[in-house]
Specification:
about 325 residues, alpha/beta, Rossmann fold, Zinc Finger, Delta Prime, domain 3, 16 helices, about 10% strand, elongated
C-alpha cells in the first residue's frame, strides 16, 4: 500500500499533482471519481486522502501516520470515514439509505465526513439515484470518493458532479518495486520482473506467485529451449513426458504458449543488446546468451510466427496434443 503522497507520486504523478495542489490550496472537491484498473492503487489513494483530511499533526500535506486519527483511518475504524463495499454483486439502495442516515448527524470528531464507495459501477439504479441526490445536497461538510475500474458504468449525471482522477497502469519498474516491497509475502526481484510481463495487477501477480504454476511453466519453457539447442531429436519426448502433463487445462495451455513466446522475445532482445527487456530469462542467464548466439534472426521470427499461430488455433479448439506436435515441427 502507498501510504504517503511521495510514494504515490512515484507511480501516479499526474493524479498526485492534482490532489496535492488542491490540498495545499485548501480547495478539496466535494466529490472525486477515481478510475483505474485493478491494482493501480485506488483504495490506497482513497485512504491516503481521507487520512490527509483528518490528520491533526500533518505537515500541511503528508499525514503523520502515527497519531490515533491516522491509525483509525488506516484500520478502517474512524467514525467519520465510511466505506461502502458491494453487498454480493452490487451496492444496494438500502446501503446508501443507511449511509445518508449516518450523515444526517454531525461528525463525531470534526465537522467533516468522508464516504468511500468501492466498485461504484455496481451501484443499482436506485442506489445510484440516491447517491446522485446526496452529491447534490450533502447534509454536512462531506467528501465523497467513488472508486471504479469502469467509469462508463457510472451514471453521466454522477460523473458530472465529481472531479475525475484517472489512474494510469503502473510502469513496469514501479510495478516490480511494489511487488518486491510487499510485506506479507516475499517476491524476489527476478520473479517480480517475470510477473510484470504477465500482468499489471498486483492482486493477480500475488495470485500467480502463490499458486506457483507460472514458475513451473517458466522452468519448462527454459528446459524446452535447452532441449531444442542441445538435444533436438528429443523435443517430441519432452513434449509428451513433461510439457503436456503440465498443461492439462485450457488456461494452462494458453499460458504455456504465452511464456514460450515471451522466451523467444527475450532471446531476440538479447541478440540486439536490449537485455533490459528480458523477463522470462535473467539477463545474465547462460542459456539465454547461448540461444541468442545460435538461433538466427530468421529462425527466431519463424518460431515466433509458429507460436502465434498455435495460440490462435488453440482458441479454435484444436486438440492440444496435435497442436503442440505441429508446433515443435517448426522449431
Amino acid at each position: 500500500m502507498m501510504k504517503t503522497w511521495r510514494e504515490l507520486e512515484e507511480v501516479q504523478p499526474l493524479a498526485t499533482k492534482i490532489l496535492t495542489n488542491s490540498i495545499k490550496k485548501h480547495r478539496i472537491s466535494h466529490a472525486y471519481l477515481i478510475q483505474g484498473d485493478r491494482g493501480t492503487g485506488k483504495k490506497s489513494l482513497a485512504k491516503l486522502l481521507a487520512m490527509t483530511l483528518f490528520c491533526e499533526s500533518s505537515d500541511g500535506l503528508e499525514p503523520c501516520q502515527s497519531c490515533p486519527v491516522c491509525q483509525r483511518v488506516d484500520s478502517g475504524n474512524h467514525p467519520d470515514v465510511h466505506w461502502i463495499e458491494p453487498d454480493g454483486n452490487s451496492i444496494k439502495n438500502d446501503q446508501i439509505k443507511l449511509l445518508r442516515k449516518e450523515f444526517a448527524y454531525t461528525g463525531y470528531e470534526s465537522a467533516r465526513k468522508v464516504y468511500i464507495i468501492s466498485a461504484a459501477e455496481t451501484l443499482t439504479v436506485n442506489a445510484a439515484n440516491r447517491i446522485l441526490k446526496f452529491l447534490e445536497e450533502p447534509d454536512v461538510e462531506t467528501t465523497a470518493i467513488l472508486l471504479t475500474h469502469n467509469v462508463q458504468g457510472i451514471l453521466p449525471t454522477i460523473q458530472s458532479r465529481c472531479q475525475l482522477i484517472d489512474l494510469r497502469p503502473l510502469e513496469a519498474s514501479a510495478f516490480q518495486h511494489r511487488l518486491v516491497e510487499l510485506t506479507d509475502i516475499t517476491i524476489t526481484e527476478n520473479n517480480a520482473r517475470f510477473l510484470s510481463a504477465l500482468t499489471n495487477n498486483i492482486d493477480e501477480a500475488i495470485q500467480y506467485h502463490e499458486e506457483e504454476k507460472v514458475y513451473q511453466l517458466r522452468d519448462l519453457v527454459q528446459e524446452f529451449i535447452y532441449i531444442v539447442l542441445t538435444k533436438y531429436e528429443e523435443r517430441y519426448l519432452f513434449v509428451h513426458q513433461k510439457w503436456l502433463p503440465a498443461v492439462k487445462e485450457r488456461a494452462e495451455q494458453e499460458q504455456g504458449i504465452d511464456l514460450l513466446l515471451l522466451a523467444l522475445k527475450d532471446i531476440m532482445n538479447c541478440q540486439i543488446g536490449r537485455t533490459s527487456h528480458t523477463f522470462l530469462f535473467h539477463a545474465e542467464d547462460g542459456l539465454l546468451k547461448r540461444a541468442a548466439r545460435e538461433f538466427s534472426k530468421e529462425r527466431l521470427l519463424r518460431m515466433m510466427k509458429a507460436v502465434l499461430e498455435s495460440r490462435q488455433k488453440l482458441k479454435q479448439n484444436i486438440h492440444p496434443t496435435l497442436l503442440t506436435e505441429q508446433l515443435v515441427l517448426q522449431f
